[in-house]
Amino acid sequence: MTFKVYMDMCEDKGWWNVKCHACKQLSVVFLSGHASRNKPRDLVLPVSVGDSFSQETLHKYLHTIKLEGYQSDSVILALSADDGSTVYFKVTEGLVLPEPPEMTDWKKYRREERLNLQRQHVTLQRQQYTEYQQKQQQQHKQQQAPEHSLHTDVP
Amino acid sequence: MFECVTYNRMSFDRGKTTITLINGQCFVWNSKQARFLREELRIVGTLCGSLPRAPMQNTHLGLPLQLMPEEVTLLLEKGLAEVVENTEDVITEEMKLEYKNKEKKSYKRQVELYTRERQEEIKRKLPQIIAGKKAKRNKVLDERRKNGEIIDDSEFEKEIEMTVEDVGIPTLQEASMLMEIPLACDPSTTTPVLVKWTYPKSDKEVLRYRVFRDLWDKGHYLTSGSKFGGDFIAYPGDPSRFHSLFIVVCKPHSASISGIELITMGRLGTNVKKTIVLSSVDENDKLCYTSLQWTGIS
Asked: In this complex, which of B257, B282, B290 lies closest to A52 when CB atoms are compared?
């Protein structure tokens, strides 16, 4: 399960510097990584969707899952199902204000921009490939054509 | 001569808010008290009555203000309110007679006012009424002309003389008379009796009240959370001016929450741009809150 989450984070979500750690007190393995280059390190605890939690256990996680020399007041629960799909929820102690709507709108805009860039990249690649193919075909034809003229010269 | 506004005995006397217990629910009927609760004490409640001038809609509701049991307990603890139940007095024959007389007087007065109002309206609309009558008459003359009759043009121009009295006013039926329904309970037929308030009792209620009190002390405005599937909704300011920020879910500290439930709550919170706050009391009798947010990784 931890491996599935690890793969998901690295390949699908594209996190940076994902590392594996062990917490002896709870005998669990947890991961840590950056969502992007500029974001601070987040601690991710893989759990199964079928597990049940209580506020007691959540608080235990918050207090015992720590990295040396790193202060973090939240843990991300990576709830993963049998098929590998994972949902990430951040658990924090205390009252945390939700993101203001300006932030969510801006993030949405950023995400759209990124998708557009990807699409552009793909179309550019496709273009380049078709050009390359055409060039190959032309070269092939040129090679065949001189051979043909040799034959016709001889009466 | 000017009218001098006096407060009657049932109104706000800066002492205690009167909370009426009806069928197990608590209501505040007095508008000044309801305003005081909201403006000074951050107790919001829910308006659940219809507005007398706009009864056929429920976008805007009016008095009475229904209070949550937690709000009532808070007010009682602070000594700012009292809970009463109205008991019906025995209705005597003379009370019935008095009521019938009041009704008759009201009817007579309503007929007077109605007639006067209609007369004013007719006076204002008299030119239009005359124009309408003229047009009708001219139409009839036109028909007669078409049928071959010879009518002089001057007939069309003739003015119609009419006065306000000529227009008939229908009589006001007794069955369609307006009845007054007093907002604060009619003191003449009921007696308020103080009620012993016993909320909270069960563990769940105790936890809910504890959380409510703590959040209220922190300065939030709290209302019932049933619209968002939680126990309470917390606003940073008056609910009519702000969106709420937290959906508070009260659960015992060691009660198990399945992973699916966590996902449900988390998704709900993200979709409505609020943080889910799981609240409970831990072993050391301390209130602890856990916020649940979606990380936005997709």
From this structure: B257
Judge residue B220's burial from the number of C-beta atoms within 10 Å of its C-beta, 0-12 exposed, 13-18 middle, 19 or more buried: buried
- Nearest CB to B274: which of A49, A87, A98? A98
> Which residue from B229, B205, B193, B192 is spatially nearest to B73, judged by alpha carbons?
B205
pLDDT band at B185 (very low <50, low <70, confident <90, very high): low
Shortest distance, CA A62 to any CA of chain B (angstroms): 10
Dihedral, A107, A110, A115, A120 alpha carbons, nearest 10? 180
| ipTM, interface predicted TM-score of the complex | 0.71
Torsion of CA B132, B137, B140, B141, to 10 degrees: -140
Report DSSP state, residue A135: H
CA-CA-CA-CA torsion for A51, A54, A55, A56, nearest 10 degrees? Answer: -110
- pLDDT tens-digit readout, A75-107: 888 888 888 788 889 899 888 888 887 887 888
Instruction: Look at residue A152 in the predicted model and tell me its pLDDT.
Output: 57
Q: Which pLDDT score is estimated for A154?
A: 54
Q: What mean pLDDT is reported for chain A?
A: 82
Adjacent-strand bridge partners of B279: B250, B289
Backbone angles phi, psi at B36, to 5 degrees: -60, -45
Residue type, B149: E
Dihedral sign (CA A109, A110, A114, A115): negative
Mean pLDDT computed over B151-174: 75
Is pTM, for the whole model, over 0.80?
A: no
Query: How many interface pairs between A and B have CB atoms less than 8 angstroms apart?
Result: 103
Distance CA A35, CA A149 (A): 63
CA distances from B266 to A75, B114, B200, B232 (A): 14, 60, 29, 16
Distance from CA of A81 to the nearest CA of B (A): 10
